[in-house]
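User: C-alpha coordinates for this one?
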Amino acid sequence: MDIKDIQNLIKFVSKSGVQEVKLEMEDFKITIKTESDQRKTESSGMIQQFQPVQASPVVLDPAILKAVPQAEQEDENATTTIKSPIIGTFYRKAAAEKPPFVKVGDVIKEGDVLCVIEAMKLFNEIESEVSGTIVKILIDDASPVEFDQPLFVIHPS
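Assistant:
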Protein backbone atom coordinates (compact mmCIF):
# COMPACT_ATOMS: atom_id res chain seq x y z
CA MET A 1 0.00 0.00 0.00
CA ASP A 2 1.52 3.34 -0.99
CA ILE A 3 0.94 6.85 0.39
CA LYS A 4 -1.73 7.66 -2.25
CA ASP A 5 -3.77 4.64 -1.14
CA ILE A 6 -3.48 5.74 2.49
CA GLN A 7 -4.50 9.30 1.55
CA ASN A 8 -7.53 7.99 -0.34
CA LEU A 9 -8.46 5.78 2.62
CA ILE A 10 -8.28 8.77 4.99
CA LYS A 11 -10.48 10.84 2.64
CA PHE A 12 -13.01 8.02 2.38
CA VAL A 13 -13.17 7.50 6.15
CA SER A 14 -13.59 11.23 6.88
CA LYS A 15 -16.42 11.58 4.34
CA SER A 16 -18.20 8.34 5.22
CA GLY A 17 -19.00 9.27 8.81
CA VAL A 18 -17.80 5.97 10.26
CA GLN A 19 -16.13 6.12 13.66
CA GLU A 20 -13.29 3.65 13.10
CA VAL A 21 -11.65 1.66 10.30
CA LYS A 22 -8.98 -1.03 10.81
CA LEU A 23 -6.81 -2.38 8.02
CA GLU A 24 -4.32 -5.18 8.62
CA MET A 25 -1.83 -6.36 6.04
CA GLU A 26 1.13 -8.72 6.42
CA ASP A 27 3.67 -5.92 6.98
CA PHE A 28 1.61 -3.18 8.65
CA LYS A 29 -1.56 -2.32 10.54
CA ILE A 30 -3.53 0.95 10.28
CA THR A 31 -6.40 2.13 12.45
CA ILE A 32 -8.17 5.37 11.57
CA LYS A 33 -10.51 6.82 14.19
CA THR A 34 -12.64 9.91 13.78
CA GLU A 35 -13.91 12.02 16.63
CA SER A 36 -15.63 15.39 16.70
CA ASP A 37 -12.74 17.32 18.33
CA GLN A 38 -9.66 15.26 17.51
CA ARG A 39 -8.31 12.98 14.80
CA LYS A 40 -6.11 10.10 15.80
CA THR A 41 -4.10 7.91 13.48
CA GLU A 42 -2.64 4.65 14.77
CA SER A 43 0.05 2.90 12.77
CA SER A 44 2.17 -0.06 13.92
CA GLY A 45 1.25 0.54 17.56
CA MET A 46 2.27 4.23 17.58
CA ILE A 47 -0.35 6.89 18.18
CA GLN A 48 0.04 10.43 16.91
CA GLN A 49 -2.44 13.01 18.12
CA PHE A 50 -3.12 16.22 16.22
CA GLN A 51 -4.97 19.30 17.38
CA PRO A 52 -6.72 21.55 14.85
CA VAL A 53 -4.96 24.83 14.13
CA GLN A 54 -6.96 27.71 15.57
CA ALA A 55 -7.20 30.81 13.39
CA SER A 56 -8.10 34.29 14.57
CA PRO A 57 -11.50 35.46 13.35
CA VAL A 58 -11.42 38.16 10.69
CA VAL A 59 -13.75 41.10 11.29
CA LEU A 60 -14.58 43.19 8.23
CA ASP A 61 -15.78 46.77 8.43
CA PRO A 62 -19.23 47.06 6.76
CA ALA A 63 -18.07 50.28 5.05
CA ILE A 64 -15.33 48.32 3.29
CA LEU A 65 -17.81 45.69 2.12
CA LYS A 66 -20.04 48.39 0.62
CA ALA A 67 -17.04 49.82 -1.24
CA VAL A 68 -16.39 46.50 -3.02
CA PRO A 69 -18.41 46.33 -6.26
CA GLN A 70 -21.07 43.63 -6.40
CA ALA A 71 -19.36 41.94 -9.38
CA GLU A 72 -16.17 41.41 -7.32
CA GLN A 73 -18.18 39.91 -4.45
CA GLU A 74 -19.86 37.48 -6.86
CA ASP A 75 -16.48 36.58 -8.43
CA GLU A 76 -15.13 35.68 -5.01
CA ASN A 77 -18.01 33.23 -4.57
CA ALA A 78 -17.12 31.56 -7.90
CA THR A 79 -13.81 30.15 -6.63
CA THR A 80 -12.50 26.68 -5.89
CA THR A 81 -10.60 25.87 -2.71
CA ILE A 82 -7.81 23.30 -2.83
CA LYS A 83 -7.61 21.48 0.51
CA SER A 84 -4.87 19.39 2.08
CA PRO A 85 -5.39 15.67 1.45
CA ILE A 86 -3.08 14.75 4.35
CA ILE A 87 -1.64 15.94 7.65
CA GLY A 88 1.91 17.26 7.40
CA THR A 89 4.11 20.28 6.75
CA PHE A 90 3.28 22.60 3.83
CA TYR A 91 6.09 23.77 1.53
CA ARG A 92 5.66 26.23 -1.35
CA LYS A 93 9.03 25.28 -2.93
CA ALA A 94 10.84 22.05 -3.75
CA ALA A 95 14.01 23.36 -2.03
CA ALA A 96 15.12 26.53 -0.23
CA GLU A 97 16.99 27.90 -3.26
CA LYS A 98 14.21 27.03 -5.75
CA PRO A 99 11.33 29.35 -6.73
CA PRO A 100 7.84 28.64 -5.36
CA PHE A 101 5.66 26.25 -7.36
CA VAL A 102 2.94 28.93 -7.74
CA LYS A 103 2.30 32.55 -6.71
CA VAL A 104 -0.85 34.65 -6.49
CA GLY A 105 -1.91 35.60 -10.01
CA ASP A 106 -0.34 32.56 -11.71
CA VAL A 107 -2.46 30.82 -14.34
CA ILE A 108 -2.44 27.06 -13.75
CA LYS A 109 -3.94 24.03 -15.40
CA GLU A 110 -5.33 20.84 -13.94
CA GLY A 111 -2.52 18.58 -12.74
CA ASP A 112 0.04 21.37 -12.11
CA VAL A 113 1.96 20.97 -8.84
CA LEU A 114 0.89 23.64 -6.32
CA CYS A 115 3.00 22.65 -3.31
CA VAL A 116 4.44 19.70 -1.43
CA ILE A 117 3.35 18.36 1.94
CA GLU A 118 5.84 16.42 4.00
CA ALA A 119 4.35 13.57 6.00
CA MET A 120 6.59 11.08 7.81
CA LYS A 121 9.67 12.06 5.75
CA LEU A 122 7.75 11.61 2.46
CA PHE A 123 7.23 14.64 0.23
CA ASN A 124 3.83 14.48 -1.47
CA GLU A 125 3.18 16.73 -4.47
CA ILE A 126 -0.24 18.37 -4.31
CA GLU A 127 -1.66 18.90 -7.78
CA SER A 128 -4.39 21.27 -8.91
CA GLU A 129 -7.82 19.75 -9.40
CA VAL A 130 -8.90 22.60 -11.71
CA SER A 131 -7.50 25.03 -14.28
CA GLY A 132 -7.61 28.71 -13.40
CA THR A 133 -5.83 31.56 -11.63
CA ILE A 134 -4.38 31.48 -8.09
CA VAL A 135 -6.37 34.02 -6.05
CA LYS A 136 -5.02 33.35 -2.54
CA ILE A 137 -2.42 31.21 -0.81
CA LEU A 138 -3.83 30.52 2.64
CA ILE A 139 -0.82 28.86 4.35
CA ASP A 140 2.68 30.16 5.13
CA ASP A 141 5.68 28.18 3.92
CA ALA A 142 6.89 25.46 6.33
CA SER A 143 3.64 25.57 8.34
CA PRO A 144 1.84 22.51 9.70
CA VAL A 145 -1.43 21.61 7.96
CA GLU A 146 -4.35 19.42 8.97
CA PHE A 147 -6.31 17.04 6.80
CA ASP A 148 -8.90 18.93 4.70
CA GLN A 149 -7.43 22.35 5.64
CA PRO A 150 -7.82 24.95 2.84
CA LEU A 151 -4.50 25.72 1.09
CA PHE A 152 -5.28 27.66 -2.09
CA VAL A 153 -8.18 29.63 -3.56
CA ILE A 154 -8.41 29.34 -7.36
CA HIS A 155 -10.67 31.21 -9.76
CA PRO A 156 -11.56 28.54 -12.37
CA SER A 157 -11.18 29.44 -16.03
